[in-house]
Predict the structure.
Amino acid sequence: MIRAGSDILGDRSRVAGVTRVAAIDCGTNTIRLLVADLEGGQAREVVRTGLITRLGQGVDRTGELDADALTRTLSATREFAGIIESEGAQQVRFVATSATRDARNRDEFVLGVREALGVEPEVVSGVVEAGLSFTGAVSAVSRAHPGPYLVVDLGGGSTEVVLGTDAPEYAVSLDIGSVRLHERHLVSDPPTQAEIDAATVDVREALRRAEAEVPLHETATLVGVAGTITTTTAHALRLPGYQRERIDGAELPVGIAMAAAQDLLAATRRERAALPYLHPGRVDVIGAGALIWFEVIARVLAETTAAGSGIRHVVTSEHDILDGIALSLGASA
């Protein structure tokens, strides 16, 4: 668990003008919690933690949430409930995304969360997910980089692509993610060229659909969020471990970012497992996620170059949908 600022902040939840909130993002591969103090339209982190439970295990193939995956995820939810209570959060919002959207038996999951946490989980659409990711990412990067921002939230089951400056203007959710693409195509260790080619076809087709809805050529700053991208950034930086403070806000030349993605895709699972910044729960799927990120950068580079600008760097943010969920609680207060 990462705990940020608890000793310094003390019980700010009782200070006038400060609202302590808890945000939970339950995705295909991870479930994460942010407890934050909202003040003046900003979210000040108190606790940020997450667990890889792979709720979306097999959903692409079966259309249902796996029983063991449900057990793991509900156990994590109960653990988070204890943290939320101990930190004194006044409002809680639980958002479930791709895997839950796609599952026929999601009612079983919703009931389990309600019993564990005492709140109704929201199974949000891909467009809502994209908007929350945009809000969270731009809340951090807008001070240092110009808009319009193309925020790419690369998850386990889906990838959200959203463009805007002060607010989302165009958004699309694509059914490509690290877990989904891995289970469909990249089953060998390391993946064969035929598997990579088949996966690439899927990704490029999805990005063609994205272009029809989001004007990628208008991008001034490409921002990547979520575990695949933060891990790929750590790989590009050759960090001695997962150092969130160095990953957050990192600005990489496009060639360096793309080379790091290609390297992870080509690596064996043993080679990946030896990397000090790669969580064990991502070892099998990071190659698929890296392929998606490579193709996204390549497509945005091509579109912006054709428009006469051409992105030169990509920005990584540790602020994402979790921060967007937390900030939404302030907006609704």
Observations:
- The chain has two domains: 2-124, 134-321.
